[in-house]
Amino acid sequence: MATVLSVSGSPSASSRTGRLLRHLDQRLTAQGHEVIPLDVRTIPAEALLGADFRHPAIVEATELFARADGVVVGTPVYKASYSGVLKALLDLLPQYALTGKTVLPLATGGSTAHVLALDYALRPVLNSMGAAHIVQGWFTLDKDITAHEDGTVTVAPATAEALGQVVDQFSAALGRTPYLAAAS
């Protein structure tokens, strides 16, 4: 199956976003994919904020993106946009780091007023980085995610069902590149 890079753009170690991603990683693993988690907050701040392209952590993150067939990008929404740490990482990746890749954008936030952040803030950046296919993303309300002390989460039933469908669509899309299909 495919190699999936699961990127959490949350600056918080106890983030609902990160926990939700790790929960979804289990579904992708059960479908036979190799899932590699990347928590952007673990990359040294001096590398991100100093734009140190040669820092070992930035080099490693760039290699993880290059290795992946698909990328899940999760972010909390702050002030109607994706997180600053995610932006800092995306800015340091090569211009076309997502070329040929299937991408699933996910976001979490406190209000449905932020749902458009996926389509109007994150999707254009992912598209500009050459993503072959950006599947329909999903916005999850914070109130629908219950974080437990052991690091796991419980997702409200209706949200869990919708997220499952989105993840399954992403899984099915892995390996199918619109450009290759059009050329044949």
Topology of helices and strands:
Blueprint: E1 3-8, H1 16-30, E2 34-39, H2 45-49, H3 56-67, E3 70-76, H4 84-92, E4 102-109, H5 117-128, E5 133-134, E6 138-141, E7 145-147, E8 153-155, H6 157-173, H7 178-183
Organism: Streptomyces griseoruber
InterPro entries: Flavoprotein-like_sf, FMN_Rdtase-like_dom, NAD(P)H-dep_FMN_reductase, NADPH-dep_FMN_reduc_SsuE
GO molecular function, one term: FMN reductase [NAD(P)H] activity
Describe what this molecule looks like in 3D.
The chain has 184 residues and is an alpha/beta fold. The chain has helices at 16-30, 45-49, 56-67, 84-92, 117-128, 157-173, 178-183; strands spanning 3-8, 34-39, 70-76, 102-109, 133-134, 138-141, 145-147, 153-155. The chain is globular. Residues 178-184 have low confidence and may be disordered. This is NADPH-dependent FMN reductase. One of its GO terms (molecular function) is FMN reductase [NAD(P)H] activity. InterPro entries: Flavoprotein-like_sf (IPR029039), FMN_Rdtase-like_dom (IPR005025), NAD(P)H-dep_FMN_reductase (IPR051814), NADPH-dep_FMN_reduc_SsuE (IPR020048).
